[in-house]
Amino acid sequence: MDIFALYRKFVPDRIRHGLRQTYYFMRCRVLHLEPSLCLSLESYRKSHPNEVENIYTFPIHFFSSLPKYKLTDKQRLDYTLDISGYVYKIINVCCYAHSGVVKLNNGKYFYDLRNNYLKLGKTISCQDGKVWMVDEPKYYHIKQFVEKRSLHSAILFTDIFSGNYYHFTLSILPKLDYIKHIPESVPLLVDNSVQRIASYQQLIRLCDEQNRKLVFMDDEVEYHVEELYTISSLMIACPQYRKNQPMAVDDDLYNGHTIDWLRNKLLPQKAKISTPKRLFISRQKASGLRKFNENECISVLTKYGFEVVYPEDFSITEQVALFNNAEFIIGGSGAAFTNLIYANEHTNVIILEGYKSNICIFSSIAAHLNLNLLYLYDRTLGDIPSGYDIHSNFEVNVGDLEELITQMLKNNE
């Protein structure tokens, strides 16, 4: 067990929360921002017409689908929302690594994630490279950076959790679909995590037909950009689930167009390799989160022809092939299941998790692509309680797993 798992296991949640709060108070300047001080770009354009240009507007159809826990459950769209997306050029603003926050020329802030959640009537808690939002939406802890750098022009190609494969692939990468409306000389402003993670650079190069220059952002630096191009959020993903607030079907919203765009871009470039038809996606090389009895599961799965794969050992094009060639995929919930976007219709999928929840992440992908996805949760934990940790360790009932496998295989006969 690694040190972070020990920390989560033995340090009470309220103490961990207090330590995080103390840490951020030490590093941040507390601002009490009323809603009028955090603007939409439309309202900013009305007051500063010479500093905001609407380059392009496009429709976004968001949707979500609740997880299935029984074979008799129907995978359907449980929530839909239609909004307008945009490509804006903003003059003389500041931006930051790992953050969607933009500091406007009048000293106020634009934060697309927050604005989207306010449209949904929600408040959120989150922390990214620039801002820490706490229990009430008007309270922010804004980190103040001493080092400042300047750029003439750039496309903001970062956001909260941009170092996570799931968020990078589904939220940031598809913005490349809209940069054709921006001069080719304008570079992509990306996090330094893209520089460290070769697969992220590979994804950009596979999808960016214009082969734009990459400018890497360092942490805790304020970047002043004379002409910043920003593209609206193409996915609404809850950054942190709040305690004592039940999960809802509209917490995480997906855009079918971006899923289809990624498939159209990457499936033709999949590696020409032989891969197993039945996959067990191991988390043994992943983060220390959501550990479970993998070896016990593997002993059952090998009887049914499943082969253990470690996604970290494969290139992006090989991961595309793995999931596109598979007929049955099983594994613990994690970012690797982002690759379900490459799976074929009617592929069988079982995702193992701790609590039973309404987190509509991979179930929404399954609904869009018509995958046969079921979740198997730890019945000793049950439904997600108040004060939960969605990343806690759990135990898979291998008897239940084997029964579910046989039922799904029988349904395919």
Structure summary:
The chain is an alpha/beta fold.
Set out the fold topology.
Blueprint: H1 3-10, H2 13-27, E1 28-32, E2 38-39, H3 41-47, E3 52-64, E4 79-95, E5 101-103, E6 109-111, H4 112-119, E7 126-127, E8 131-133, E9 139-143, E10 147-156, H5 165-172, E11 188-191, H6 192-196, H7 198-207, E12 214-217, E13 221-231, E14 254-255, H8 256-266, E15 278-281, H9 294-301, E16 307-309, H10 316-325, E17 328-332, E18 348-353, H11 362-369, E19 372-377, H12 398-412
Parallel strand pairs: 2-6, 10-11, 10-13, 11-12, 15-16, 15-17, 17-18, 18-19
Antiparallel strand pairs: 1-9, 3-4, 3-14, 4-5, 4-13, 5-6, 7-8, 8-9
Can you characterise this structure?
- There is one protein chain.
- The chain is of the alpha/beta class and 413 residues long.
- Helix content is 27%, strand content 26%.
- The protein contains 12 helices and 19 strands.
- The chain has helices at 3-10, 13-27, 41-47, 112-119, 165-172, 192-196, 198-207, 256-266, 294-301, 316-325, 362-369, 398-412; strands at residues 28-32, 38-39, 52-64, 79-95, 101-103, 109-111, 126-127, 131-133, 139-143, 147-156, 188-191, 214-217, 221-231, 254-255, 278-281, 307-309, 328-332, 348-353, 372-377.
- Strands 2, 3, 4, 5, 6, 10, 11, 12, 13 and 14 form a 10-stranded mixed sheet that branches.
- The two termini are 42 Å apart.
- 38% of the residues are buried.
